[in-house]
Specification:
Blueprint: E1 24-25, E2 39-42, E3 48-52, E4 57-58, E5 67-68, H1 76-80
Length: 89
């Protein structure tokens, strides 16, 4: 049986929202939602939390679509490719 994964000492529910100066407007597709670091989870009240583990902060709703930070990195799936249904490993 595989070992259990360690539990993060700080869940995103305990994080604060990012400071206003962290995210900058972006006119390209380089925005939070297309970043390798972008994550989301659902809190105990079934509310979606948009998170940035690099900054350990919450991203305000909607800003993940129009803003990015200086740590933006392209998603690896786009570089490596996606396995299609029916393809062998």
């Amino acid at each position: 049986m595989p070992a259990a994964l360690p539990v993060s000492p700080c869940s995103a529910e305990e994080w604060d929202f990012l400071q206003p100066n962290v995210l900058k407007p972006s006119l390209s597709s380089k925005v939070c939602i297309t970043c390798q670091h972008f994550c989301y989870e659902v809190d105990r009240h079934c509310v979606t939390l948009l998170t940035c583990p690099i900054h350990q902060g919450l991203i305000p709703q909607g800003e993940h679509l129009t803003k990015r930070c200086s740590q933006w990195v392209t998603r690896q799936e786009l570089e490596v490719g996606v396995l299609r249904v029916g393809e062998a490993f």
